[in-house]
């Protein structure tokens, strides 16, 4: 894989977003499947046991689902069994499925990343895809651009929020230092360290307490 992948979270999201499609795909032909069992216990006692159905994507032929109207199946085409020569076409069919079966733009953007992660196209393969499937490539480029733009906007908003929080913290700390100097004189090293390591909550508590505190020890004593 081109990067670290959280498979549990990826597939959890997929199942939560498309529960019916996931059940139809992962539990296909349930009657023919051989249940497997997990058990917790010892030779004498069994404390917990349940059956589960195994779906081995890497052993599932991708050809069976190239034209599937099940979006979960189409999104998982890159995880199925195919030859190296089919890689670009498999990616294309997954993207076609996403465009055709998912009308919601936000979910298209969300699962564009899912397909990209599990396909892992090289630069050469991506160029081949763009030349072989220009229409789908253009649509996906638009989604990717929107994804990048929204990511940048979100990052800017988070940065502004963090900056505001940091600014407030520094402002409260500076005000408290001035109050300490006015009431008790120079700030000793130990008190300076406490102030530098304080949380927002601690600073707020000390600002309120300095009015009645008769010493630095009393100010910094946890109540």
Biggest sheet, open or closed, and with what strands and sense? 2 strands, antiparallel
Q: Please count the beta strands (DSSP E, at least 2 residues each).
A: 2
Order of helices and strands: HHEEHHHHHHHH
Tally of contiguous helical segments: 10
Structural class: mainly alpha
Kindly report the average pLDDT value.
80
Write out the strand line-up for the largest beta sheet, numbering strands in chain order.
1-2
Helix content: 55-70%
- The fraction of residues in strands falls at 5-15%
Rg of Cα set: 29 Å
How far apart lie the N and C ends? 52 Å
Residue ranges: pLDDT <50 for 5 or more in a row?
none
Structure description:
The protein has 10 helices and 2 strands. It is mostly helical and 223 residues long. It has a two-stranded antiparallel ribbon with strand order 1-2. The longest helix has 51 residues, at 134-184. The mean pLDDT is 80.
Summarize the structure.
This protein is mainly α.
Descriptive keywords:
223 residues; mainly alpha; two-stranded antiparallel sheet; 2 strands; elongated
Task: Set down the secondary structure blueprint.
Blueprint: H1 7-17, H2 19-26, E1 36-41, E2 46-52, H3 71-75, H4 87-101, H5 105-119, H6 123-132, H7 134-184, H8 189-197, H9 200-209, H10 216-220
Antiparallel strand pairs: 1-2
Helix pairs in contact: 1-2, 4-5, 4-6, 5-7, 6-7, 7-9
């Amino acid at each position: 894989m081109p990067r670290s992948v959280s498979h549990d979270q990826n597939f959890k999201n997929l199942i939560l977003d498309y529960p019916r499609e996931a059940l139809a795909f992962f539990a296909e032909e349930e009657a023919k499947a051989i249940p497997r069992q997990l058990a917790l216990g010892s030779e004498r006692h069994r404390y917990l046991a349940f059956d589960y159905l195994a779906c081995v994507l890497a052993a599932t032929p991708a050809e069976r689902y190239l034209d599937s109207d099940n979006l979960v199946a189409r999104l998982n085409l890159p995880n199925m069994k195919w030859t190296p020569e089919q890689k670009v076409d498999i990616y294309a069919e997954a993207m076609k499925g996403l465009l055709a079966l998912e009308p919601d733009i936000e979910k298209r953007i969300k699962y564009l990343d899912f397909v990209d992660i599990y396909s892992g196209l090289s630069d050469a393969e991506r160029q081949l895809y763009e030349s072989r499937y220009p229409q789908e490539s253009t649509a996906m480029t638009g989604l990717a651009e929107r994804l990048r733009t929204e990511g940048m906007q979100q990052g800017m908003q988070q940065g502004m929020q963090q900056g505001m929080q940091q600014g407030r913290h520094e402002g409260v700390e500076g005000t408290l230092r001035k109050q300490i100097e006015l009431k008790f004189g120079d700030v000793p090293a130990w008190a300076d360290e406490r102030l530098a390591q304080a949380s927002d909550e601690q600073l707020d508590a000390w600002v309120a307490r300095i009015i009645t505190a008769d010493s630095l020890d009393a100010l910094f004593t946890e109540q």
